[in-house]
Design goal:
The structure is a homodimer of 217-residue chains. With 217 residues, chain A is mainly α. Chain A has one domain: Orthogonal Bundle (Tetracycline Repressor, domain 2), CATH 1.10.357.10. Chain A is built from ten helices and no strands. In chain A, helix 1 crosses helix 2 and helix 6 packs across helix 8. Chain B binds a DNA duplex (30 and 30 nucleotides) through helix 3.
DNA sequence: GCAGACCTACCTACCTGTCGGTAGTTTTGG
DNA sequence: CCAAAACTACCGACAGGTAGGTAGGTCTGC
């Protein structure tokens, strides 16, 4: 809330031209995202983040009042990116299985593009939102309920097999997120790097095919 | 290694009679499991663990040489419990879907009985085994490969639908673990407590039914 | 000249692990 | 049989290190 909207740049003028010239604030957010995702809240020090940006810790604290405030802002950025990216697929006019596949693929690709997001969300889901002012579950709950309603409607018309829609969503959540959040572990379980283009294509097709088999009568 | 083999008890005499009278060492392991699962390695201090047992930190370090050694022993205990509990289901003589259902249910119930185990494993999977001498993936890999072989054989005989067996296992892993590891998050997403008997029964039936639908032709 | 960005130096709180010592029990040997 | 020796379990105090956060000064660009 109360977006500072990139304080230093005059009025958001030519931002696309000098895109590599990010403000220090943006660099901090970027570095913080990567490190929080990698090491969690407690496992990441402000020194690490500052060093990654190339400044000292007090300079970082000039841009953000505290570690917790920085973490919250990273998380808010994450959530707004998430909603923005999935809005198209969710709001699409498709029906039945086509829409599910659309959302599934959009989610998968978003997570593949932003594995750090997945790891941060997963950590927060495990911890139960200790470092977060906002409650992750209450933010996601409206979408969750809408999705459950969608499945139930399609089940009643016979488009999908009848089953517990919320359990289905939880399973989908687990299938989508686990691959990215547990990538360091899967790395040792598979013969190929989980984030390679080939492996990602495999995974996406499997998920789509798997859910189609479970949903269509 | 170099097992001390329960130093205090004289010669392992009547251990079953005074089972509630656990040794301090056992109490430490128990408390450490709960706290490591809840807060992770970095988020748990030896003071917290010692306080939970009712002793001071130096006394705890009398029983374990270091925090890392304690963590490793907790994890080894976890893994041996895991293998012991699932050995029956995995070694069963059943074939085809019946065996999959057996293992699925055995795993589910083991995790339901030991949610702390799931949370510790999940944290380790995310972190990639930073605090562990052993590598989780290499320990689990033989079972993983055996399971993949099993699925592939059953697919070739037409018992199961043909699909990527390793992707299938990863999806099963995600479906089973996520429910327990992310319980604090799911608590806010559902209307019932995820670990209540009703909710657990729901979840178990969903998983079994879901995988049956995806596997059977 | 002044505001924003950055710095060094410092503070307090907390962490793990060690040291020296104590009380009580077990082992040993004469 | 019993006292000396050894061992177990515990503790308070401390050392060394790192964390987040603050105070105050310097530099730079408008």
């Amino acid at each position: 809330m109360a977006q500072h909207t990139s304080a230093p740049s005059p009025a958001g003028a030519q931002r696309d031209l000098d895109s590599p010239a990010r403000t220090t604030r943006e660099q901090i957010l970027e570095e913080a995202l990567a490190l929080f995702a990698q090491g969690g809240y407690g496992g990441t020090s402000l020194n690490d983040i500052a060093a990654g940006v190339g400044i000292r810790r007090p300079s970082l604290l000039h841009h953000f009042p505290s570690k917790e405030a920085l973490y919250q802002e990273v998380f808010e950025l994450l959530l707004s990116d998430w909603f923005e990216r999935l809005a198209g697929a969710i709001g699409s006019a498709e029906r039945g299985w086509d829409k599910v596949e659309l959302v599934l693929r959009a989610g998968f690709r978003f997570f593949a593009d932003n594995p750090s997001y997945v790891r941060m969300v997963r950590r927060e889901a495990i911890d139960g939102g200790q470092h977060l002012g906002i409650d992750l579950a209450s933010v996601l709950r409206p979408s969750f309920d809408l999705a459950a309603d969608y499945f139930e409607r399609e089940m009643q018309t016979g488009t999908f097999r009848t089953q517990d829609s919320r359990q289905l969503l939880i399973t989908g959540y687990g299938a989508l997120l686990s691959y990215f959040s547990d990538e360091p572990f899967l790395e040792g379980l598979l013969d190929m790097a989980p984030m390679s283009a080939d492996a990602l294509a495999n995974r996406e097709e499997h998920i789509v095919q798997f859910f189609r088999a479970a949903l269509l009568p």
